[in-house]
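Table S2 (text version). Query chain:
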Amino acid sequence: MTDSVVFSGQSGAADQRYRRIGLLGGSFNPAHDGHRYISTEALRRLGLDEIWWMVSPQNPLKSESGMAPYGKRLASAQVVARHPRIRVTSIEAEMGTQYTADTLESLVQRYPATHFVWLMGADNLLQIPRWRDWSKIFNTVPIAVFARDSYDSKALSGIAAHRFRASRLPASAAKVLADAALPAWVFLRIRPHPAAATDLRQAGHWPHGS
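Corresponding structure-token output:
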């Protein structure tokens, strides 16, 4: 069986050249411009080649109630991404992994020539101790944490930040994060973005292709 990444709407054999790939996982219920904003900031500030949006079949920490069908969420991500270096992928569903720690471990094994960076907001840094095998995530790939308004101070004084405080790199080292010895993470302050999936769902707004 050949080693491949199958992206929604496209497929191809994964090459083995060195690449830096940012991973943005989530429900994308729906995808919105905030996801795209973080992705473009990651491309610029982390020196990444691409961003992969990993649309989760079902987040274990979120209720299935109110969760749109997987195909609809995948389609919303395709509409919003609109960037040549942002790829929407169903790889988590294809690998059959449910937890981030398992997904990352599988990706690192599958693509040994690729340097992955996990991307997340400060809200997820605060709640990551609730994730299964969360410490393993820090020891599998470097992590870039993006500021998220009211969550920042709590996240930076929380359990995860405290446990891995010695592994935090300064923001000025962001462009070498992908190549850093593990564990390694950075906290990046960015301009707040108003888009929120909850607000879009309540307004009944879903992205549609032309």
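Notes on Table S2: The first helix runs from residue 33 to 46. The chain has one domain: 16-202.
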